[in-house]
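Appendix B: a complete holo record

For completeness, this appendix reproduces one full record from the ligand-bound portion of the collection. The bound molecule is S-adenosylmethionine. The inputs are the chain sequence and the ligand SMILES; the output is the full three-dimensional arrangement of the complex, encoded as structure tokens. No fields have been trimmed.
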Amino acid sequence: MARLGGVEQTRTLTPRTAVIWAVLRAELDRRAGERLSVLDVGGGTGGFAVPLAEAGHRVTVVDASPDALAALTRRAAEAGVADRVRATQGDADALTGLVEPASVDLVLCHSVLEVVDAPEPVITALAGALRPGGAASVLVAARAAAVLGRAINGQLDAAAALATDPHGTAGGRDTLRRRYDAEGATALLTAAGLAVEEIHGVRVLADLLPAAVADGQPAALLELERALAAKPPYRDLAAQLHLFARRPA
Ligand SMILES: C[S@@+](CC[C@H](N)C(=O)[O-])C[C@H]1O[C@@H](n2cnc3c(N)ncnc32)[C@H](O)[C@@H]1O
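The structure of the chain with S-adenosylmethionine bound, as generated:
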């Protein structure tokens, strides 16, 4: 079995993943030596699930897409961790019927709340799946970065719509159903009984830089992303917000 908690040794860290892995790593270190039960809601092809399984944890991925789950299953087999990864097709809205209540140590819900029909029942269900003291890693699309991004691209009408729409969308052609700021995302998790412990920005700068800079100086960019991730106002301009929360013990 891989050393429990040694997840980052198997990954190439990028601005999309480095800050999240740093937060998860701290939780895995806190529980070093334990084989955790992990639930990845909308876990897709297993970008987080497989490394967690490689680190020795048992991971259940619930995802609506059979194609994503097939890719996950292949990836887990190639990594030699098929026995620790369970792929379950299902709807995040119906988690309660798929996962035993209070049975999970760590829940991941990354880039899902912005696409589901309604985020509240998803968060309530994942909070209910956690054991008391268990943790939730939630990644959501951020509104401010989307407003700036549209404006910089000359889409001023879309930027204005995004800034004022109650759900942070740009209207009918938007691919996402909602976007968050730190306050709104915190309120969502708090209403489900979770205590938010940390908020980080993910991709504070990465999406704003010319490709030549991002590709030419990857280590410097990663370092800067790490340095800015927890600090408002930079945090709040990131493309995504990562919230780390806990079900009170
Ligand atoms: C943007 S991908 C994110 C994948 C992964 N969490 C990650 O961060 O790389 C969104 C995933 O959520 C899944 N998904 C979308 N709506 C869902 C729902 N209602 N229930 C379960 N999974 C859903 C999609 O199939 C897809 O795999």
